[in-house]
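Help needed: design a sequence for this.
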């Protein structure tokens, strides 16, 4: 399994080897004006792979001066507290609305155990508190000095209200977290990332336009890897989200349950990507973006907008 990939201009990509599988979660190493910046830590279970990536790149942990996460979902930032103690000179950056949950991760832990049950701890590992004194809250509009041009912080809510994306202006690479979905190697297109609890499709569509307006040359997906931007990258993703919204709504009007909506999305995506997609590939993708989670997110979205009755007690 290849850990490190050179992207040019001193930029590097680390495959975090999530659950002993390649191509699921990427971290990006960027040369800062002083030292290095890391974008995305992944979960605590991937900490050793991140450190191995630094070692293979010849980067001493003390040289890392900035660690940024796009949002606080566990596959992106669950390991921030665990990594922080190993990167003693790094400032830690997250959206302002997520900072409190990083300092006191009790609600993140409870949410993970509700969603994943007994699988939560093996998947994510311990979710450690992040030292408050080292956290830098972001809202969008900030810049961090990199070699070749600053890293620009973009507010890109929708997937979550605390979602950020980062434009590496030196290479025109947009590091999108989940704001442009999931694009694994076996996928022919980006799959919508529309989980609970605070999915907001209107905000997501606005964020897509905001990202497009930066005129990037590449997209650096957290799931997974850097790909060139095409003329239709942003429109195709919006279209895919609209497809899933409409399919989910068509089912939810009659059968507003997670299994029914998830099955409709699964069947649609199988048709969209062709019959060659194997069950093992689907199960792999479910580790970072499952149909059940998408169904939960869309049903909650419909309910918060009064399109479906609220769930009973």
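Sure. Designed sequence:
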């Amino acid at each position: 399994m290849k850990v490190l990939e050179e992207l040019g201009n001193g930029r590097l990509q680390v495959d975090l080897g999530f659950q002993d599988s390649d191509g699921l979660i990427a971290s990006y190493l960027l040369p800062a004006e002083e030292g290095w910046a890391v974008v995305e830590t992944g979960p605590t279970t991937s900490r050793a792979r991140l450190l191995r990536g630094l070692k293979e790149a010849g980067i001493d942990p003390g040289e890392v001066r900035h660690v940024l996460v796009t949002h606080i979902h566990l596959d992106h930032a669950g390991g921030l507290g665990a990594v922080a103690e190993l990167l003693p000179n790094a400032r830690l950056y997250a959206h302002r609305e997520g900072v409190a949950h990083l300092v006191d991760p009790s609600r993140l832990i409870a949410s993970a155990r509700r969603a994943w049950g007994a699988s939560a701890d093996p998947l994510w590992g311990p979710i450690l508190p992040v030292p408050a004194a080292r956290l830098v809250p972001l809202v969008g509009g900030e810049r961090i000095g990199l070699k070749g041009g600053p890293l620009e912080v973009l507010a890109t809510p929708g997937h979550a209200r605390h979602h950020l994306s980062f434009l590496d202006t030196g290479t025109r690479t947009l590091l999108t977290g989940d704001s442009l979905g999931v694009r694994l190697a076996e996928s022919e297109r980006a799959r919508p990332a529309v989980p609970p609890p605070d999915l907001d499709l209107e905000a997501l569509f606005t964020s897509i336009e905001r990202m497009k307006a930066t005129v990037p040359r590449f997209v650096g997906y957290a799931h997974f890897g850097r790909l060139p931007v095409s003329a239709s990258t942003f429109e195709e993703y919006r279209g895919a989200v609209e497809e899933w919204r409409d399919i989910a709504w068509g089912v939810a009007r009659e059968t507003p349950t997670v299994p029914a909506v998830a099955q409709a999305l699964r069947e649609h995506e199988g048709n969209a990507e062709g019959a060659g997609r194997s069950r093992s590939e689907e199960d792999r993708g479910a580790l970072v973006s499952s149909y059940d989670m998408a169904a939960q997110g869309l049903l909650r979205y419909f309910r918060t907008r009064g399109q479906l009755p609220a769930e009973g007690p």
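DSSP finds eleven helices and 13 strands in the chain.
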